[in-house]
């Protein structure tokens, strides 16, 4: 079994890790605890990294929200759930969801997602197709209001 590393070495390793990519407080703290540091030492390291701006939850949220909405095609609900799992307070990420995600781009990505899913959908009738599309979009983290708006628009375009 490896010996636990010193607090100073953990600080330098975590600073290097945080400088290579964005990480939230919880990820940094968990990594320090996995290395065998005490909870107090991990808290001191996280505080120091925040003080030196290696860790910033707001900056992390901006990057996370932008990446998940653009590249993974996630909706606001799923992004919010993922950030809650990372123990980021809602007061930090809730205002950023509307600020970072452009409403028009958000709805157009949902429309494109529904259009591509509709091509592969097997349904006996229109009601079943709409239900399957709604379940699919809900799983991707979009709200029912947005889904209803986009499904109605796609029905009118056909």
TrEMBL record:
Residues 105-151 form the RecX third three-helical domain. It is found in: Cytoplasm. It comes from the Bacteria. GO terms for cellular component: cytoplasm. Keywords: Cytoplasm. Signal peptide: none annotated. Pfam families: RecX_HTH2 (PF02631), RecX_HTH3 (PF21981). Residues 56-92 form the RecX second three-helical domain. InterPro entries: RecX_HTH_2nd, RecX_HTH_3rd, Regulatory_RecX, WH-like_DNA-bd_sf. One of its GO terms (biological process) is regulation of DNA repair. Belongs to the RecX family. This is Regulatory protein RecX.
């Amino acid at each position: 079994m490896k010996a636990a590393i010193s607090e100073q070495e953990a600080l330098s390793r975590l600073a290097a890790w945080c400088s290579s990519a964005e990480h939230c407080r919880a990820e940094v703290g968990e990594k320090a605890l996995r290395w065998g540091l005490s909870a107090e030492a991990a808290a001191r390291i996280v505080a120091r990294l925040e003080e030196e701006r290696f860790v910033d939850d707001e900056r992390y949220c901006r990057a996370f929200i932008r990446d998940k909405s653009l590249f993974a095609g996630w909706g606001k609900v799923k992004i919010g759930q993922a950030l809650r799992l990372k123990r980021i307070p809602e007061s930090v990420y809730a205002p950023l969801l509307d600020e970072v995600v452009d409403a028009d781009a958000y709805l157009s990505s949902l429309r494109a997602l529904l259009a591509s899913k509709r091509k592969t959908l097997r349904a006996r009738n229109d009601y079943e197709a709409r239900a399957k599309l709604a379940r699919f979009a809900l799983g991707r983290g979009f709200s029912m209001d947005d889904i209803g708006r986009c499904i109605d628009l796609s029905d009118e375009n056909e």
